[in-house]
Design brief:
The protein has 387 residues and is α+β, with helices and mostly antiparallel strands. The chain has ten helices and 25 strands. Among the domains are: 177 residues, FAD/NAD(P)-binding domain; 91 residues, 2-Layer Sandwich (D-Amino Acid Oxidase, Chain A, domain 2).
């Protein structure tokens, strides 16, 4: 083992909302923390909507209001065409105590949050790649490089906030369990004209025979549209991806209208949007949080808020363990995650059960096979270990 260049009480792998919230939780207990982030916060990031219930998390974390209000678009609610309700089901945020949600412009939000966490005292290593992690002498030894410069970092505890890949947890033997093969086909767009005033601040959701659609307006005349489907239902070959996107779009009655003003559309990209979790959330002096621990269906609209909440919980639990040597804090965190995922499955089952118009569709029949009473996936048909 080479001599360490850095040593921190806690190291967080991943500088997204979860990892940054974890750092805040640790700093709140007056411990030092470093965050390892592989990007420079200039790359496109998926996920933008914060419902009103999520805005209270910022006050709890001590994040100033201007960080979410500046450069982002207030959201008035959600309009959905789903199931047999007619003509539209609207969730109006005006009646919530916060009165609005937020459609974030990312990665601007992540970059501003990282700057705030730095100001609070965290060290954030951007554009940093991890080459190996070994445990020796009661410490994790992390070999990494930043802009080609090799370094060794040591720490007694690691928080994996690396996202869906759960890159660290998997090196420790934890496995990803996936409940479906859902993917999101995503296009970002911009417009030179203002969309209709009565719709510009609403999230729009619409189901279709092969999946469902999501549309969100963003600040500065931007928007994002996502088609959620299964990897074996809609062909994902690059050469035909745009064609199949357009075919699915034509099957909608409302998404196509919302997207029409956004004439400058980027090429479609595909990312996993399945429900998944680790079979083990923690081990010897490490734990996973946020999307590394569990990933929710985008239908929940809780991706970013979940990351912030789980990161904060993880940071406080780890700080308590380090300062007091009390593993019960980590055990409580583990139990909380188990409960959260179980409740999520029940809620997800209920959402999908309300759409019964296409019983022969592979996409919909799979989601109707989930047992909502037990909150578990039907192992024979939809529960599989991710490769």
């Amino acid at each position: 083992m080479g001599k360490a260049d850095y040593h921190y009480p806690v190291v967080v792998i991943g500088g997204g909302p979860c990892g940054l919230a974890a750092a805040l939780g640790i700093l709140n207990q007056e411990l030092g923390v470093a965050v390892i982030e592989k990007t420079d916060y200039n790359q496109k990031r998926i996920g933008e909507h914060l419902p009103p219930s999520a805005l209270g998390i910022f006050a709890e974390l001590g994040i100033p209001d201007h960080l979410v209000e500046r450069n982002h678009l207030p959201c008035a609610g959600v309009m959905s065409w789903w199931g047999r309700q007619a003509p539209v089901h609207t969730v109006d945020y005006y009646f919530h105590p916060m009165q609005h949600g937020i459609n974030l412009s990312r990665p601007r939000f992540d970059r501003d949050l990282a700057d705030f966490v730095r100001q609070r005292g965290a060290t954030i290593h951007e554009q940093t790649t991890i080459h190996s992690i070994q445990r020796h002498g009661g410490l994790w030894h992390i070999a990494l490089s930043t802009n080609g410069h090799q370094r060794i970092m040591t720490t007694p505890f690691v928080i994996d906030a690396s996202g869906k890949s759960a890159s660290f947890a998997r090196t420790q033997g934890s496995r990803i369990l996936a409940g479906d093969s859902q993917v999101a086909i995503i296009r970002y767009g911009s417009t030179d004209q203002a969309p209709a005033q009565d719709h510009k601040n609403h999230i729009v959701i619409e189901s279709c025979p092969t999946g469902w659609w999501y549309f969100a307006p963003l600040a500065a005349g931007q928007a994002v549209a996502m088609f959620m489907t299964d990897a074996d239902v809609t062909p994902l070959h690059k050469s035909t991806l745009l064609t199949h996107w357009n075919i699915a779009l034509q099957s909608t009655n409302h998404i196509a209208d919302r997207l029409q003003p956004y004439v400058h559309l980027q090429k479609p990209v595909v990312c996993l949007s399945r429900s998944q979790r680790l079979d083990c959330f923690q081990g010897e002096n490490w734990l996973a949080a946020g999307d590394a621990a569990m990933t929710f269906d985008p239908l929940s609209s809780h991706g970013i808020s979940k990351g912030l909440r789980h990161g904060w919980m993880a940071g406080k639990a780890v700080a308590t363990f380090i300062q007091q040597g009390d593993r019960r804090a980590l055990e409580r965190f583990d139990r909380d995650l188990e409960y959260i995922f179980s409740e999520y499955l029940k809620t997800r089952t209920g959402y999908y059960a309300t759409e019964q118009r296409w019983p022969e569709s592979r996409f919909w029949s799979r989601r109707h096979a989930i047992d909502s009473l037990s909150g578990q996936f039907d192992i024979d048909s939809t529960f599989r270990q991710a490769v």
